[in-house]
Amino acid sequence: YQLDAENRLTHLFWMSPAQRRQAQDQHQILIHDNTYKTNRYKLPLGVFCAPNRHGQTMLVATCLSLKEATSDYEWQLQCYKDAVGIPPAVVFTDADPASTAAVAAIFPTSCHIWCIWHIYANLRKNLLGLLKTSFSDFMADFKRCRAQPSTP
After folding, report:
1. CB 3.0-4.6 Å disulfide test: which of 64, 114, 132, 150 passes with 95?
2. Global pTM?
3. Residue 11 in contact with residue 1, Cβ under 8 Å?
4. DSSP per residue, the chain
């Protein structure tokens, strides 16, 4: 946990021993996301998940922070890194610039991938009003383009 100058809680990270073993055993993939102040404390809740050997998504850590700035994400990811001791090969997050910067700082050797669900949600949020009736065609083209194999 972390306190401010007035001794108020600013960050809290928790991981049970069973969660730590799960994260260490299945350390290759990390999924990290913050809810936006949906709890009764009105604080962003960070969740860390990883797939187990059966393909099930397991909650491996949680945290609370006052904000969602790069420094807050860095604190969260550093706590996870310290607890697990092994960097993930792949980290999935939303496309938040603060989160992106924090992943690059704390896990520089990990492959960082933005969650496609968040990308689709942001496309809808930012383009639906602009494209209006053309939005469906745009999304079909976007999905078709995304499905194409990449070439060097």
Report:
1. 114
2. 0.83
3. yes
4. -EE-TTS-EEEEEE--HHHHHHHHHTTTEEEEEEE-S-STT---EEEEEEE-TTS-EEEEEEEEES--SHHHHHHHHHHHHHHH-S--SEEEE-S-HHHHHHHHHH-TTSEEEE-HHHHHHHHHHHHHHHHGGGHHHHHHHHHHHHHSPP--
| 55 Cβ neighbours under 8 A, 6+ residues apart | none
Cβ-based neighbours of 65, under 8 Å, separated by 6 or more:
10, 11, 34, 43, 44, 46, 72, 75, 76
Does the pLDDT value for residue 26 go beyond 70?
yes
Instruction: Give the integer Cα–Cα distance in Å for 83 and 106.
Output: 13
Each residue of 81-101: b (16+ CB within 10 Å) or e?
A: eebbeebbeebbbbebebbbe
CA distance 63 to 86: 19
Nearest CA among 59, 77, 80, 79 for reference residue 68: 77
